[in-house]
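User: Teach me something about this protein's shape.
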Amino acid sequence: MKKRADENRPSPRYLVQDLAARFDVSVLISPVAHPELSPIEMVWGTVKMALKRANTSFSLATLRSMAEVEFVKITAKVWAKYEDHAIKQETYYRAVDEVCAEVEAAFNGDKDDDEEEGSIDGDSEDESGSEDGGQEGETGGSMSE
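Assistant: First, the predicted structure itself:
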């Protein structure tokens, strides 16, 4: 029963998605543990790296003032650069997903063909004529030339 419930569970829907749809705006919800897909994570990374390099006094007051200065440096142009990067990464991941799906589909299709082409008694030989794929004697031996 739980398995059937899990299979039919609706995907999560966020109120922001409904609001965005009313205004014909798309919302990109970033997956967990993928900072390259989230511009705000890139901003945090930039600010943290700048603080790491510049913080020599290690006082909280200095750190706060330095953080304010670094956040001011994150202009609309910088944000747009991070946003473009995130979009490019997402596009890349989607393309890789498509290629993986094509390869898996081809592999699954080839698997059926291979089963039909196999020998009757279950033994299979490769083009070299040996049952071990032509790798006999390749393991072991000397590594020197």
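Now, about its shape. Confidence is low (pLDDT under 50) at residues 132-145. Residues 12-116 form one domain. If you'd like, I can walk through any region in more detail.
User: That's plenty for now, thanks!
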